[in-house]
Write a structure and sequence with these properties.
Blueprint (H helix, E strand, L loop, with lengths): L9 H20 L2 E2 L7 H24 L4 H22 L3 E2 L4 H37 L21 H14 L6 E7 L2 H8 L1 H17 L6 E6 L2 E6 L4 H16 L16 E7 L6 H17 L6
Helix pairs in contact: 1-3, 2-3, 3-4, 6-7
This protein binds guanosine-5'-triphosphate.
Guanosine-5'-triphosphate binds next to strand 3, helix 6 and helix 7.
Length: about 300
């Protein structure tokens, strides 16, 4: 599990810990232990699960969401809820003679406030998701299959591209789409000079530049290693080549800074394009464009 986001949430982590500590201190400090015979174990299991799951939700939020308004509101709301859930749990094993009314008020108010804050956060999350969906459109086509995502670039894999090409072939009576395959030149040398991590970082940055230069209907996937494959629905070969040329130009002009140093490294791509022809299958069109790209690379040509 990747815990790197946790380091960016120290304040929210403290809020959750403070809520847990305060509720435990209050509920244990103000009460007296019940006799074992008076404890309802069924209630303990039910309320214990609510408290534990609230803690688990906070943990998963902290390790999976970046800092921001939505994350803060969700964690603060859940921490309020956790506060009430812990009081509720502990009063199964403690009884409160003099403070019962005060504690029951303290117990019910934070969970209500927590629910309100979380409802606000969920609405904000919904708004955030609408924006993210727009950005995701070029990463994914008609379906979402997270087991086909390449975790380095967050682009879909070649397998996903095959399914999307197949659906293009099935949906149109005469195929009217093009594909482009891009390959980074001398990526092996870059890996050897700056290390594999920097190579991964470069793949991510290049993916972002590729996406930035696509239209909302196009799709980019990682084919293999330093090869990317693009799908342009309803697009002729010439237009697809023009877009690929723009991507190539954009990448050639970006100064990549390995290890955040002052050094600038520029990258060049080779690409090949193919249009679908009658009788094509996803494999045949991918093989054609792959072969064409290999041919260009062998002859040192920029593109076809
Ligand atoms: N960092 C990183 N490197 C990868 C990954 N997948 C493949 N590679 C590396 O990509 C390199 C591809 O090497 P080549 O196919 O020779 O490509 P190239 O060096 O760009 O050579 P040309 O295409 O002929 O210019 C190899 O060093 C692989 O180890 C990855 O996920 N991350």
């Amino acid at each position: 599990m990747n815990l790197s986001l946790l380091a960016q949430h120290q304040r929210l982590f403290s809020v959750a810990c403070a809520s847990l500590t305060l509720s435990l201190t209050l509920s244990i400090g103000l009460g007296q232990a019940k006799a074992l015979a008076d404890i309802s174990w069924l209630d303990m299991i039910g309320e214990g699960s609510v408290a534990l799951l609230s803690l688990a939700w906070i943990f998963f939020l902290l390790v999976s969401r970046p800092p921001g308004r939505v994350t803060s509101a969700l964690v603060i709301g859940l921490s309020c809820f956790l506060f009430s859930a812990v009081l509720d749990l502990v009063d199964e094993v403690m009884f409160y003679e003099h403070t019962a009314t005060g504690l029951s008020m303290i117990e019910s108010i934070p969970s209500g406030i927590g629910m309100l804050i979380m409802s606000y956060a969920l609405y904000q999350w919904h708004q955030e998701q609408l924006i993210l969906n727009k950005q995701l459109q070029k990463r994914e086509s008609n379906s979402r299959e997270h087991d086909q995502v390449d975790f380095i670039t967050a682009l879909y894999s070649a397998e996903y591209m095959r399914t999307q090409i197949d659906s293009q072939l099935q949906n149109s009576s005469s195929p009217g789409f093009s594909v482009v395959m891009l390959d980074i030149n001398n990526f092996d040398l870059f890996n050897r000079q700056y290390g594999h991590d920097q190579g991964d970082h470069l793949l991510r940055e290049l993916s972002d530049i590729i996406l930035m230069n696509l239209r909302s209907t196009d799709l980019a996937c990682r084919y293999a290693g330093d090869r990317f494959i693009l799908l342009f629905p309803d697009t002729d070969l010439r237009t697809a080549e023009q877009i690929a040329e723009q991507i190539k130009l954009a990448i050639a002009n970006i100064a990549f800074k390995p290890n955040q140093s002052g050094e600038s490294v520029y990258h060049h791509l080779t690409f090949a394009a193919e249009s679908a022809i009658t009788g094509d299958a996803s494999d045949s069109i991918l093989q054609r464009v792959n072969r064409r790209l290999d041919m260009f690379k062998q002859h040192g040509q920029a593109h076809g």
